[in-house]
Specification:
2 copies of one chain form a homodimer. Chain A is of the alpha/beta class. Chain A folds into 2 domains: 189 residues, NAD(P)-binding Rossmann-like Domain (Rossmann fold), CATH 3.40.50; 87 residues, UDP-galactose 4-epimerase, domain 1, CATH 3.90.25.10. Helices cover 38% and strands 21% of the residues of chain A. Chain A is built from 9 helices and 14 strands. Chains A and B meet through α3 and α4 of A and α3 and α4 of B.
């Protein structure tokens, strides 16, 4: 049984992926910055990954064969511009070196579609140039590039999961889907300010299942984690409004001309990793709307 | 008078640039890993930039307005693949944060043509994609990208000098020009193994003068530091052999098909920085040949 260390395990993606890893037969060591109840087969560690001593103790305590590194500074909207990105880049590189030094075999790190040059629109891992427009994107691109080069030199296996536009439970309530659901459910007007934009949306639970498939594969280098099904933001917003039964409260604006199309080529994910995006994206969106309307997703999270 | 801190000041580029900065009116604080004699107006500090405490002490002692960050792991050929690149990336990012925190105003860092996707051949800063083929190139690209994003957020001025193929005194003796000079001067046969390749060569003294111009400008972002004059490697080798008077000892092989052309677009350097490459590159090459034949460049350096 492979031992896996999941960082950011209490976060938006991490909380979805840890139970799947346990179900897939990994011995799961999960680390977060706050305490979590033991859940099933997951062993929780509490550590601040920005602290060198705590990093070392964590690796010594968990001795993982596999590292799924999801932790990063993720508070919206600050994370786009915060100097915390430099601290997380540095901590990530040091974590990876410690992981390799203690015998680690495979790394999967969380990258972002924000690494790409969005002027190209259709993003293919080894073709589309990187040109991050934000400090977050620059730090993620830096992290992925250096981990890739380092792993190549040390003959450690490493993949870099470029996550596209995720939605789902426990997302930040300021994001598109929860903000629409919460406004419309409360009978408040909602504005969709980039209606003409086309994006590649994926449910976070599907992203988690794609990450498990990527971890279990031997694929190295960058891999887009996305649906491969472009959707107009206006269509998504209209679906949410129709489901809630308040299309009258929705105003749609086309949004700025730049970055109108940002979608993923998922050929690597399908053909090399062997993961197929879900056929029924609407059902996943409906589940998410229900979650945000339920007590779990209620406004206390704002 | 602006205070400048030059890291790597005892290195190949640093030793050329420090006297020029002093001559240009900067109060020059120079730091290297070994002790150097005081030279003119340059104040030398000794510090290991990989040590957090020494970094802090250095910034506190020098309190620079301007940072010229040249220091990196540079031992050929190890530097292409060494994990030292991760340590220097981390140290560089922490140095830059300390510099900004104590009131620093402008940063110029040393990047590399190794950051670019060489399949494009002709490298233009904001157009040619980055796709480093080495860990060194990946770490330099990461460093430049993150410093650029960070400086943008903090409204600090930062430029990233992508140095192309430099030659000159105190280069590593294993590199093309010194290895040719030393073999041919000793009456030994010399092989030029990439004769058909075209590169952009620049004398390190000219690179130093371009860096001073870049420091004094307000230009931000990546800037190629190069001649803008492509040269066939075979022509350079033949010039060296002819100057030494031993063309009979030179064997030229065409070299691999890939990476046949790697040259810089120097429009930014010329038009925005206002620096003009030297008209007579052959004279600079001849000076370098003489230096490697002199006692200073003699084989003790091997």
């Amino acid at each position: 049984m492979k031992r896996i260390l999941v960082t950011g395990a209490g976060g938006f993606v991490g909380r979805q992926v840890t139970p799947l890893l346990a179900a897939a037969g990994f011995e799961v060591h999960a680390v977060g910055s706050s305490t979590h109840a033991e859940r099933g087969a997951v062993m929780w560690h509490r550590a601040d990954l920005l602290d060198p001593d705590q990093r070392k103790q964590l690796l010594a305590a968990s001795r993982p064969d596999v590292l799924l590194h999801l932790a990063w500074y993720a508070k919206p909207p600050d994370y786009w511009r915060s100097a915390e990105n430099l601290r997380w880049l540095t901590a990530s590189l040091e974590l990876v070196q410690l992981f390799v030094a203690q015998g680690g075999e495979r790394i999967v790190g969380a990258g972002s579609c924000a690494e790409y040059d969005w002027r190209h629109g259709y993003c293919t891992e080894e073709i589309t140039p990187l040109r991050p427009a934000s400090l977050y994107g620059a730090a993620k691109a830096a992290c992925g590039g250096v981990i890739g080069g380092y792993a190549g030199e040390l003959q450690v296996s490493a993949a870099w999961a470029r996550l596209f536009f995720l939605y789902g439970p426990f997302d930040s309530p300021v994001r598109l889907v929860p903000s629409l659901v919460r406004s419309l459910s409360a009978g408040q007007p909602a504005r969709c300010t980039a209606g003409s934009h086309v994006r590649d949306f994926l449910h976070v639970g599907d992203a988690a299942s794609a990450l498990v498939a990527l971890l279990q594969s031997k694929v190295s280098g960058p891999v887009n984690i996305a649906s491969g099904s472009p959707m107009r933001v206006a269509d998504l917003a209209r679906h949410v409004a129709a489901t809630i039964g308040r299309p009258d409260l929705l105003t749609i604006e086309p949004g700025p001309a730049e970055n109108a199309f940002v979608c993923a080529n998922v050929a690597r994910l399908r053909n090399e990793v062997g993961w197929e995006p879900p056929a029924d994206a609407a059902a996943r969106l409906d589940e998410t709307i229900q979650w945000w309307q339920s007590s779990e997703g209620a406004p206390r999270r704002g």
